[in-house]
């Protein structure tokens, strides 16, 4: 299975002085933890890291240190995650019929989850890892007044990996550019194009390291993986 790792963000919400994926947890960068999961997932045969050229020197050093056995390519990222993924799709080898997309910032996902998604995408056009929402969610207007309380039974928190038929996802991204759609995940493009996306059970621990608090939680979870 081909794996694209969006890793071209700037980590504004982390407030660090560099791409947050270069920050370290237990002596390894966040991107290194993500790459180790991909290396350990038997289903993954090719890895594309979508990243900004100014990070390439650091990324090349990390890749060399990990002594990965799988081919890894660096692909130039865009100004948004959406643009970065589209760049990644256009850089996939022609042989890629399905692809998994997994955020570099979700560095705690297990190889098992990558394998489960890789198997499931062989049987459907699109999928995402997701978990049922535990909180009661409120829809709130600009003045801070609650408008509604959606039925929690229907609410799921989206994660990555997200898996897709490559040809369909390329078409959905092209349509997104034509229509000016701005989305925060690839499943949303499938949804807008009316293509079914299936849920695969995600992992409670598969958080996206976004803020300094997430870094502390991530450190705790990963301390059991060393
Ligand atoms: N232009 C971008 C923006 C984000 N990403 C990647 O998409 C994933 C999810 O994005 P997020 O966690 O929001 O990362 P950042 O954009 O770095 O964070 P922030 O929004 O706080 O700036 C990350 O692995 C990030 O590197 C990307 O490849 N290209
Ligand atoms: C793809 C994603 O990780 C699913 O939870 C998320 O949507 C990434 O986008 P964000 O803008 O960083 O929230």
UniProtKB/TrEMBL annotation:
The pathway noted for it is:
Isoprenoid biosynthesis; isopentenyl diphosphate biosynthesis via DXP pathway; isopentenyl diphosphate from 1-deoxy-D-xylulose 5-phosphate: step 2/6
Stored InterPro entries: IspD, IspD/TarI, IspD/TarI_cytidylyltransf_bact, ISPD_synthase_CS, Nucleotide-diphossugar_trans
Is Lipoprotein among the key words of this record?
no
**Short name of any one Pfam family annotated for the protein:** IspD
Gene this chain is encoded by: ispD
The site feature described as Positions MEP for the nucleophilic attack is recorded at 152, 208
Can you name one GO molecular function term for this protein? 2-C-methyl-D-erythritol 4-phosphate cytidylyltransferase activity
Q: Which family does it belong to?
A: Belongs to the IspD/TarI cytidylyltransferase family. IspD subfamily.
Q: What protein name applies here?
A: 2-C-methyl-D-erythritol 4-phosphate cytidylyltransferase
What reaction does this catalyse? 2-C-methyl-D-erythritol 4-phosphate + CTP + H(+) = 4-CDP-2-C-methyl-D-erythritol + diphosphate
HAMAP family attached here? IspD
E.C. numbers = 2.7.7.60
Give one GO biological process term: isopentenyl diphosphate biosynthetic process, methylerythritol 4-phosphate pathway
Q: Does the keyword Hydrolase apply?
A: no
- Say which domain of life the source belongs to: Bacteria
Q: What does this protein do?
A: Catalyzes the formation of 4-diphosphocytidyl-2-C-methyl-D-erythritol from CTP and 2-C-methyl-D-erythritol 4-phosphate (MEP).
Arranged from A to Z, the UniProt key words for this protein are:
Isoprene biosynthesis, Nucleotidyltransferase, Transferase
Give site residues, Transition state stabilizer. Answer: 13, 20
